[in-house]
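[recover] target loaded
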């Protein structure tokens, strides 16, 4: 984990504190990748998939099927609303489950990125 945090930390340093005018500026164009980098750097991720989070929700399988289509990785407030309306959760529980879902998305994005890049090793080790 230290090696990956150092890499992500160096990226953020270059992105945020690049004061030299002659050096290149690095910008992330994908919101999902930016969210992934921030989540990895701060440690806000969990090593389960978003579908596993949904399958562990204490609601019916029909509600889980609907939630699997409604929950989106980019909008926390909408996810809370959908969990309350479809899953029947309290505001606090819906918020907690939406946060867990967002953490799962961070690791899932990282895992997919590692697979697409052809990185050697098991991305689940991270």
């Amino acid at each position: 984990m230290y090696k990956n945090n150092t890499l992500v930390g160096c990226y953020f340093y270059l992105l945020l504190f690049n004061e030299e005018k002659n050096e290149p500026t690095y910008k992330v164009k994908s919101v999902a990748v930016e969210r992934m980098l921030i989540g990895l750097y701060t440690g806000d991720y969990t090593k389960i998939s978003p579908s596993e989070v949904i399958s562990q929700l204490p609601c019916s399988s029909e509600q889980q099927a609907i939630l699997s289509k409604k929950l989106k990785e980019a909008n926390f407030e909408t996810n809370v609303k959908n969990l309350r309306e479809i899953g029947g959760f309290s505001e606090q529980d819906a918020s907690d489950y939406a946060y867990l879902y967002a953490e799962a998305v961070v690791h899932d994005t990282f895992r997919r990125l590692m697979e697409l890049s052809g990185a050697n090793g098991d991305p689940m080790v991270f």
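[recover] notes: The CA atoms of residues 27 and 61 lie 41 Å apart.
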